[in-house]
Amino acid sequence: MSQSTLRVLIVDDVAAVRSYLKQILIGLGIPDVTEAADGVEAVSLYQRLQPQLVFLDIQLPDINGKELLRQFKSINGQSQVVMVSAYSSVENLRDSIAAGANGFVVKPFSVQRITHLIQPYLN
């Protein structure tokens, strides 16, 4: 899959985080990046867009990100989901992987960390 065909959904309730991550992805040559601020909007966009890659915040105002991950996987188990959290606990990582996450990144994240995370999806 090339950068130009990769569809990415960013789900985070903090607009600055969504914007920063979107800028990183666009800078890496991924033009198809959509943002959602909460779980309801995310499910709707996920169903419609069927993204190949999702960056999903663990703590959203309306639903736990791990529960949203389970919903995503039941809709389309092929999507790769990277959980995003401000808390780097072993419990968060373990629970995310158990729920079906393909990766985990801690805020604040760097351009290098995101580049490393998405590399497998660009080849």
UniProtKB/TrEMBL annotation:
The keyword Phosphoprotein applies. It comes from the Bacteria. Residues 7-122 form the Response regulatory domain. Keywords: Phosphoprotein. Signal peptide: none annotated. Pfam families: Response_reg (PF00072). The modification 4-aspartylphosphate is found at D57. Transmembrane segments: none annotated. InterPro entries: CheY-like_superfamily (IPR011006), Sig_transdc_resp-reg_receiver (IPR001789), ST_Response_Regulator (IPR052048). PANTHER family: TWO-COMPONENT RESPONSE REGULATOR, TWO-COMPONENT RESPONSE REGULATOR ARR22. This is Response regulator.
